[in-house]
Design goal:
Blueprint lengths: L4 H5 L4 H9 L2 E5 L4 E3 L7 E7 L2 E5 L9 E3 L4 E2 L1 H6 L5 E5 L3 E7 L3 H7 L1 H24 L6 E4 L5 H11 L3 E6 L5 E8 L2 E7 L2 E2 H10 L6 E6 L17 H21 L5 E4 L15 H10 L5 E2 L11 H13 L3 E3 L2 H7 L1
Antiparallel strand pairs: 1-8, 2-7, 3-6, 3-8, 4-5, 4-7, 9-14, 10-11, 10-14, 11-12, 12-13, 15-16, 15-17
């Protein structure tokens, strides 16, 4: 089962967590800052606490598309552990916080937190499997498939985009229910559906889903094979779509800290004044939330299955409705009593 660094840390003994904290430090990078250059000496590897980092292969005959890493991503470890120069340019795509581990501290870190190096070995092996399977999808007509416990969505997406393949990506749950389908044309996502959503809202929700389990299959072909793929078209650059989705994930986590998903929300005003809602693009979602609360207060997490927008858009709309005093938020305890 794939575990990111923060999930792994929860399994450690207090002494091991303390050792990792004492033998590492936080580096902060501004957007566009080079973390390390290709061919540089490798003395430190990093784990992303916050932000997005892009790895750009250099020394290629043709410019290669960057790979993007997000919270929990590990990079720079392969060169440090094998004592070879950097293979990529690493750059902060947006302001980033990086947990940094220097090679000179490895002996003490191995002694005090041996499980940490077992975790690094798991990550290296996992990336090796992913790289091997990614080579297969470069050949037209071949399929890419696997378990979501071994592959993260960012890797799957970037593999399809960078291979410029045409075909359909389908994800099924452990019970073999179809969760989502997205169609790609020459590596460009063109349309898709996630649960009941279509278009960009479906794309955002795909990357917001934290408990996504099951299997995925990318089937090469010339057209969308599933009716569930049809819907609103996706026309934005695939890199822009991914970056916005990753940024949305961070914003979603912050909003969930601000507003409890189990909280009870209800109307404060008797009518909705749309002109007070900003930005204007958020008004249709605010209307949906307002109408869903017409009969009675409801839990915040009750809204998503009944709306046509992603959870992030719902949270944005709810926050704006709270700001304008259209709705009020109760406690999760009140929500349990109502239920």
């Amino acid at each position: 089962m794939h575990r990111d660094f923060f999930a792994f840390c929860t399994s450690l003994k207090p002494a091991e967590r303390r050792a990792i904290g004492e033998l590492s430090y936080v580096r902060r990078a501004i957007a566009g800052e080079t973390i390390y250059a290709a061919a540089a000496a490798a003395e430190t590897f990093y784990i992303i606490n916050r932000g997005v980092v892009e790895l750009v292969p250099e020394g290629e005959f043709e410019p290669a598309a960057p790979n993007y890493l997000v919270r929990g991503g590990v990079f720079g470890d392969r060169e440090v552990l094998t004592n070879v120069p950097r293979k990529h340019l690493a750059r902060a795509h947006e302001p980033a916080s990086l947990q940094s581990f220097d090679a000179r501290d490895f002996p003490e870190l191995i002694e005090r937190a041996p499980a940490f190096f077992h975790y690094l070995s798991e990550q290296l092996a996992r990336r090796l499997v992913q790289a091997s399977d990614a080579v297969a999808v470069q050949t037209p007509g071949l399929h890419l498939s696997g378990s979501l416990s071994n592959f993260d969505l960012v890797t799957i997406y970037q593999t399809i985009v960078n291979s410029a393949q045409t075909g359909e990506l389908a994800i099924r749950s452990d019970d073999d229910d179809r969760v989502c389908t997205f169609f790609f044309e020459s590596g460009q996502p063109r349309c898709g559906r996630f649960q009941h959503l279509t278009g960009e809202e479906a794309f955002w929700q795909l990357f917001l889903a934290e408990t996504l389990h099951g299997t995925f299959v990318f089937s090469a072909g010339t057209k969308a094979t599933s009716r569930s793929t049809w819907g609103e078209k996706l026309n934005r650059h695939p890199g822009d779509l991914l970056i916005n989705a990753l940024q949305s994930r961070d914003e979603f986590h912050a909003l969930r800290e601000e507003i409890d998903p189990g909280a009870l929300i209800g109307r404060r005003k008797s009518y909705l004044i749309l002109d007070e809602i900003g930005p204007e693009t958020l008004r249709p979602a605010a209307e949906q939330v307002w109408h869903l609360l017409a009969d009675a207060p409801a839990r915040l997490d009750w809204l998503y299955p009944r709306s046509s927008v992603s959870e992030l858009t719902i949270y944005r709309a709810v926050r704006e409705l709270i700001r304008t005093s259209h709705i009020a938020v109760g406690s999760a305890e009140q929500a349990r009593k109502v239920a």
